[in-house]
Amino acid sequence: MLKGVTLRGLEVFEALAAHGSVAAAAEATGLSQPAVSQQLSNLEKAVGTTLVERTRRPMRLTRAGRGFLARTEAALRELRMARSELTVMDLSDLPSLDIGLIDDFDNDLTPRLVTILADSLTRCRFKLITAPSREISQAMTEGVFHIAVAASTGEALSGVVEYPLVRDPFVVVAPRDMAAGPDSLLEDLSSLPFLRYAGEQLIAQQVEALLARHALSFEDRFEIGSHLALMAMVARRIGWAVTTPLGYMRAARFHDEISCFPLPFASTTGAARRISLFARTDFSATVPLDVAQSMRGLVQGHMIDPAVGRLPWLAGELRVIEG
């Protein structure tokens, strides 16, 4: 690393780029405003160029700063992922471990989590199943799994303890260039049909409840059971949908053809689903706590950081729920 370039300096630069002010960057990093300014000055001295235009409000990156930001985000992302994967769990005494995992995580988190667990489960019979949240919740109440990660229904499950992991807010996805922004979203998309998730899916029921709270109704024409199929239909300009940032990030292959917006409703307080880890009450408490902490680190590095990097307005909305 260049002499004078520090991890804290890179974190401050990333926060300034995301928030556009020293005050907001100070709040995001937990530093004082003078400390933020000093960290930025030290970083610019170390790299030998001006990274931020301080006279603009909000502050903007220089051309060199924009190029350096891409490298900074990539480096910090790798460091955060490395930190999350170094979590050591002592699971060597477990005779068996059966886990259910929400299928939202198939592409990104499942392989990482399996690798971490395999390093700890030295003498354990291990089984991992991916499935929709409804199926996982039912299986937990029937004692099929020791622990599971799924979207919460908001209802207490008999014989099960819940450990919240992630707040995943609802968002709108639409064909690219079909909508100018959230303020005119419903008007801009009025010529397109609303695409629904299949009715038996938990996310479909949560979206319908959200629409009902705002007295919104749309023609019941399309009901899609596959998340990627639904995203493909949005990309093909067939319609628009309500999903979540984790759902949007799963559809990376369609990002060039779709846009993502905050909900256009007057009030969106509580408009989010909660991803939680569930554990049987008769299971060792230390295991779910360790797995929950590992999951938080993995979600932060592999899903939240890339999502906020792509959609900065998600900062603070899509977030880990600390235990």
Describe it.
- With 323 residues, the protein is α/β, with parallel strands linked by helices.
- It folds into 3 domains: 7-85, Arc Repressor Mutant, subunit A; 96-166 and 279-320, Periplasmic binding protein-like II (D-Maltodextrin-Binding Protein, domain 2), CATH 3.40.190; 171-262, Periplasmic binding protein-like II (D-Maltodextrin-Binding Protein, domain 2, 3-Layer(aba) Sandwich), CATH 3.40.190.10.
- It contains 11 helices and 13 strands.
- It has helices at 7-19, 22-29, 33-47, 63-85, 109-120, 133-141, 185-188, 202-213, 227-235, 245-250, 286-310, and strands at residues 52-53, 60-61, 96-102, 125-131, 147-151, 160-169, 171-175, 195-197, 222-224, 241-243, 258-262, 272-280, 319-320.
- β3, α5 and β4 form a beta-alpha-beta unit.
- The chain is globular and about 60 Å long.
Annotate the secondary structure layout:
Elements: H1 7-19, H2 22-29, H3 33-47, E1 52-53, E2 60-61, H4 63-85, E3 96-102, H5 109-120, E4 125-131, H6 133-141, E5 147-151, E6 160-169, E7 171-175, H7 185-188, E8 195-197, H8 202-213, E9 222-224, H9 227-235, E10 241-243, H10 245-250, E11 258-262, E12 272-280, H11 286-310, E13 319-320
Parallel strand pairs: 3-4, 3-5, 8-9
Antiparallel strand pairs: 1-2, 5-12, 6-12, 6-13, 7-10, 7-11
Helix pairs in contact: 1-2, 1-3, 1-4, 2-3, 4-11
Name a few traits of the molecule:
D-Maltodextrin-Binding Protein, domain 2; single chain; Arc Repressor Mutant, subunit A; 323 residues; 3 domains; six-stranded mixed sheet; alpha/beta; 11 helices
